[in-house]
Amino acid sequence: MIGFLVAGLIIGLLARLILPGRQKIGLLWTVVLGVIGSLIGGLIANALRSGSIWELNFIGFVAAVGASVIVLAVAERSGLLTRGDRPRGDLPPRVR
Question: Which of 21, 17, 15 has its CA nearest to residue 40?
Answer without folding.
Answer: 15
